[in-house]
C-alpha cells in the first residue's frame, strides 16, 4: 500500500502519516490559545480524534503519546484530568510528558502520538 499522508501542511509536514499499519500524528497545538490548560488539552484531544479517524483508527489503538507542557508544575494535574477522562482505561498507551519551551508563549501544550491500525 505504501505511505499514506493526510492533511499536508504546505512544504513542512503531514498532520497524519500511515505506514505499515502504524499511524503517526504530528505535534498538535491548540487553535484557540486564549484557553487555559484544560481547554487547550481538550482541543488537542478532539483534534487527535479527528486525525485518527482520517487514518482509520481511534484512541483505543494509541501506542505511544508524547506530551510537552510549557509549565509542568502548574499544568500537569489539570492536563491529566482531561487526559484521563478521554483515554480509554482499558487501552492506556505508553506516554511521556515533559516541560518544554514551546513555539509561542500562549501555547501551553503540544501532543504527538503513534497508533496502530490493528485491532
From TrEMBL:
Signal peptide range: none
InterPro entries per record: RutC-like_sf (IPR035959), YjgF/YER057c/UK114 (IPR006175), YoaB-like (IPR035709)
CDD domains listed in its UniProt record: YjgF_YER057c_UK114_like_2
Listed name of the protein: Cytochrome C2
Species annotation: Sinorhizobium saheli
Amino acid at each position: 500500500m505504501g505511505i499514506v499522508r493526510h492533511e499536508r501542511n504546505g512544504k513542512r509536514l503531514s498532520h497524519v502519516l500511515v505506514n505499515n499499519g502504524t499511524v503517526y500524528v504530528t505535534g498538535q497545538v491548540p487553535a484557540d490559545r486564549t484557553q487555559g490548560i484544560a481547554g487547550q488539552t481538550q482541543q488537542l484531544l478532539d483534534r487527535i480524534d479527528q486525525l485518527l479517524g482520517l487514518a482509520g483508527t481511534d484512541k483505543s489503538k494509541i501506542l505511544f503519546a508524547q506530551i510537552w507542557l510549557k509549565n509542568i508544575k502548574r499544568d500537569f494535574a489539570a492536563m491529566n484530568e482531561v487526559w484521563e477522562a478521554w483515554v480509554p482505561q482499558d487501552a492506556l498507551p505508553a506516554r511521556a510528558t515533559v516541560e518544554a519551551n514551546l513555539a509561542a508563549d500562549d501555547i501551553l501544550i503540544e501532543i504527538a502520538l503513534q497508533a496502530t491500525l490493528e485491532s
